[in-house]
Amino acid sequence: MSDHHRPDGAPALTLTNPVLPGFHPDPSICRRGDDYYLVCSSFEYFPGIPVFHSRDLVHWKQIGNALDRPAQLRLPYDRPSSGGIYAPTLRFHDGRFWLVVTNVSDEGNMLLTATDPAGPWSDPVRLPDVPGIDPDLAWDEDGACWCTVAGVSQVRLDPYNGKVLDGPRPLWSGSPGAQAPEAPHLYRIGEFWYLMIAEGGTERGHAVSIARGRHPSGPFEPCPDNPVLTHRGTSRPIQNTGHADLVQAPDGSWWMVLLAVRPRGGTPGWHVLGRETFLAPVEWVDGWPVIGEVTGELPAPAWPLHPVPATTGRDDFDDASLPFHWLSLRARPERLCTTEERPGHLTLRAAGESLDAPDVTFVGRRQQHFSCRVRTLVDPGRGRGGLAVRLDEQHHYEIEAADGEVRVLARIGSLRTEVASAPVPAGPVVLGLDVVPQPPQGPRTGPDRLALGVEFPGGAYTELASLDGRYLSTEVAGGFTGRVIGMYAASGTVHFDWFDYEPLDG
Q1: Of 119, 147, 146, which is closest to residue 133 (Cα–Cα)?
Q2: DSSP code string of 279-329
Q3: Mean pLDDT score of the chain, rounded to an integer?
Q4: Is the pLDDT of residue 222 over 90?
Q5: Given a cut of 90, is residue 141 above it in pLDDT?
Q6: Which of 47, 142, 347, 394 has the smallest number of Cβ neighbours within 10 A?
Q7: What are the backbone angles phi and psi of residue 43, rounded to the nearest 5°?
Q8: Exposed, middle or buried: residue 418 (CB in 10 Å: 0-12, 13-18, 19+)?
Q9: Which CDD domains does the record cross-reference, listed alphabetically (predicted)?
């Protein structure tokens, strides 16, 4: 939040965009009364589908995870990163919340319901006859439920048992020749049904296009100004704009949530925080949406703001369960991850032998700031574990402690190397990570550097290695996620007394 000045000299409040920084892609939003709820994709991480609440569209608080039980979410260890949970759609209808989503690593599309979006959410109703990904739900005035998926195609669905009643049938699929028509959302607004999709791929060509018709199954007339939103071919600091959802505010105004990225460094630009959730104003002109600027600052809305406390960056693991924002890889068995074995500690038991393994015991949080300072106090005992920053199994940096030594390790594609090491006294040791932005100094300048180090007895902190951050970016690694920073066990049992994430920028 910052203050600028109007022409008359009075301050005009502006707000920070993205409204959900860090790895929060594929946002879907719905409103019930004065409350807004939003969900995002979670891919290979457990628990799945973070659920957020807001009273003003700007300030969001995570209130749960829709997929928080093993019975709801199966993520096999033999499936790659950036699999798992794709593109949920959240809607409120007939007194309950509905969530439809694709698990590309298991049984495809599924549907859940809840009376309270904070949970609990139901076990999934499977949708074996609904093809494709990115499912959407909409109900017409007769109560018929329409499920539209990427491609774009549509079925009429019984949402209570998952049975397809009609279809699938093809629909309008965006601009001729545009790749990846996906993320469809269908709305009844005024006299028309609007079908909004993403197209152009989720990289620099990403865009939002829209069409309208008199019936939920079309035919659809495309907007003459499509795409209604894209930043492709521009030098704007926010790129990859797309995968959007619309919502109406109590004052009658319309808004859009969408994903975008903030690349940094030289060429081609590297984004490391993942695809983030942005907010943009929408006006309707001649029956078509006109999207306002997607920038790093938002004008304050016309209604009262309801700030929420920031998620604390420090966890002393004093509670029986972990806060909602902690993530694990594919599962979180209690036998491998607990706060109850040693009071005030997170105890991790090793499964996979390193961050290279899909079943490594790992607990982390999204990196949400370009600059941050992370520390954790680890007691490796007879085990081996430490602090890691992860993009996937083939792209991660870590510093680990074992047998009176700390080591800095790097995995970049097919290469894995020990970068540095140092002896440390036996017992608990503080491990650290500093993420330091780098100013561009040429086309090959990375976005940041990741400095890993150790705090010795007496409080002296020593940096052991400084690594180029571009190798932990989507432009290098591929995939759909962002950096996650956390703790892991690679051998035996490892205890963590505390974890502290300190933002050093906005």
Answers
A1: 147
A2: EEEEEEETTEEEE----SEEEPPSS-----PPPPSEE---SSS--TT-EEE
A3: 95
A4: yes
A5: yes
A6: 142
A7: 55, -125
A8: exposed
A9: GH43_XynB-like
DSSP E strand boundaries for 40-135: 45-46, 48-54, 61-67, 85-93, 96-103, 108-114, 125-126
pLDDT at 285 > cutoff 60? yes
From 26, 315, 392, 400, the catalytic residue: 26
Q: Are strands 461-468 and 85-93 parallel, antiparallel or unpaired?
A: unpaired
pLDDT of the residue at 442 = 84
Residue 269 CA, chain-centre distance (Å), reads 20
Active site residue 182: yes
Q: What was the pLDDT predicted at 10?
A: 38
> What is the residue whose two structure tokens read 């402690």?
401
Question: In angstroms, rounded to a whole number, what is the distance separating the alpha carbons of residues 190 and 209?
Answer: 19
Residue located via tokens 């946002």: 27
The residues of the chain that CATH labels 2.115.10.20 are 18-299
Tell me which H or E stretch contains 25: none
Cis peptide before 457 (omega within 30 of 0): no
Cis peptide before 25 (omega within 30 of 0): no
Distance (Å, rounded) from C-alpha 380 to C-alpha 495? 6
Least confident range from 14-23, 109-118, 488-497: namely 14-23
Residue range 186-197: mean pLDDT, rounded: 97
Q: Where in the chain is the domain with CATH 2.60.120.200?
A: 314-503
Contacts of 392 (CB under 8 A, 6+ apart): 80, 81, 82, 477, 479, 481
Structure letter (DSSP) for residue 124? P
The CA-atom distances, in angstroms, between 474 and each of 231, 257, 447, 461 are 18, 22, 12, 31
CATH class given for the domain over 18-299: mainly beta
pLDDT in tens, 59-77: 999 999 999 999 999 999 9
Does the annotation mark 286 as catalytic? no
Nearest to 301 by CA among 261, 351, 345, 247: 247
Q: How far apart are CA 98 and CA 121, in angstroms?
A: 9
Whether the pLDDT of residue 339 is over 90: the answer is: yes
CATH no. for 314-503: 2.60.120.200
Give mean pLDDT, residues 44-60. 97
Element (H, E) at 474: helix 474-477
HSE-CB for 212 with a 13 A CA cutoff: 14
Confidence of residue 34 (pLDDT cuts 50, 70, 90): very high
The residue from 182, 393, 448, 475 that is catalytic is 182
Residue at 84: amino acid letter:
G
- The Cα 486–Cα 488 span in angstroms is 7
Pick from 89, 106, 107, 108: which is nearest to 98 by CA?
Answer: 89
Extract the tokens encoding 375.
């520390």
